[in-house]
Amino acid sequence: MNIDELISAALRVLENASVPLSRFRVGAAVLTANGKIFEGCNTESLIPVLGVCAERNAINHALIHGESRFIAVAVVSDLHLPLLPCGTCLQYMQEFARQEDRDILIIAEGRSGDRIVTSLDELFKGGFPPETSVKDIQESFRWTPE
Ligand SMILES: [Zn+2]
């Protein structure tokens, strides 16, 4: 795997970030098990909760093309220091990683050129455990008055 190539792909789409509110741009690129790279940038809405992180947009970009086995995710931003994925994105990644019981390499690079190379397992210790089924989750949200 060429990490520089993945970072370059993330940097190219950072320019396309749609961020009228924050002006804070993030680019991401995912490498799939088939060796393909899919990019994503962050997108914002005037309704803040409708915004989507670059990492999840990159994953969704891959899903649109039928790719759901992820090897690595690269993240770049306007920050001087490397920016790691947020908890929401880590949860999202975990849902794909656990399907194959595989870790995902995570690479973050800042404008300074500083790079953090870590992994999903290293960053995300929580979330629904791997053996959780959709039925378990549905039942956990069912509220019963006492
Ligand atoms: Zn995120």
Automatic annotation (TrEMBL):
Query: Which class of enzymes does this protein belong to?
Result: hydrolase
In the Enzyme Commission scheme, what number(s) does this protein have? 3.5.4.5
UniProt-listed PROSITE patterns: CYT_DCMP_DEAMINASES_1 (PS00903), CYT_DCMP_DEAMINASES_2 (PS51747)
Q: Does the keyword Hydrolase apply?
A: yes
Question: Care to name a GO molecular-function term for this sequence?
Answer: cytidine deaminase activity
Q: Which family is this protein grouped under?
A: Belongs to the cytidine and deoxycytidylate deaminase family.
Protein name as catalogued: Cytidine deaminase
Species this protein is from: Desulfomonile tiedjei
